[in-house]
Each structure stands twice: as structure tokens, then as C-alpha cells.
Amino acid sequence: MANNNYKNNQNDQMAKKGTVEYCILCGKSTEYTLETPIDFRDGYIEDVGQLCRKCYSDIYKNNNN
Ligand SMILES: [Zn+2]
Predict the structure, then answer these.
(1) Which residue, among 62, 56, 13, has the nearest Cα to 1 in the 3D structure?
(2) Ion ligand 1: protein residues whose beta carbon lies under 5 Å
(3) Consecutive H or E run containing 22
(4) Residue 57: per-residue pLDDT
(5) The whole model's pTM is what?
(6) 16: helix, strand or coil
(7) Domain residue spans in the chain?
(8) pLDDT (tens digit, 9 = 90+) per residue, 47-62?
(9) Which residues, in sequence order, are bridge partners of residue 20?
(10) 21, 27, 46, 49: most buried, per Cβ within 10 A?
(11) Integer Cα distance of 12 and 65 in angstroms
């Protein structure tokens, strides 16, 4: 998957595929849909929800200080 060039197009594609998961911290859409198995996701925290990459890495950094 391309990293930099998928802003708007990616969101459109996701919306057609299924409901996108939104980051529980910043509210941004993530690359995952509700149909994505939790095992395949990065940034999913059990009993909390899905985080975007940025928030997830922020939390990870803080915890591993
Ligand atoms: Zn976020």
C-alpha cells in the first residue's frame, strides 16, 4: 500500500468497502474498517478501540519511556 498518495482516494475507497474505524483519540479515519480482524490491525487496544498510527506511536513512546 502506498504511503503518501492515498489521502482522499483512500478515504473514498474505504467508505465504499465498509465502515472505517476512526481513531478514538484524534478522530481521524484509520486505514482499517470494522471488517478488519483485530489480529491484523496495528494500534487496536482491547476495550479501548482503534488508534491511528500517530496516536498509537505516541502512546507507545510514552509507555516505553
Ligand atoms: Zn489519532
Answers:
(1) 13
(2) 23, 25-26, 52, 55
(3) strand 20-22
(4) 93
(5) 0.64
(6) helix
(7) 23-65
(8) 999 999 999 999 888 7
(9) 33
(10) 21
(11) 37
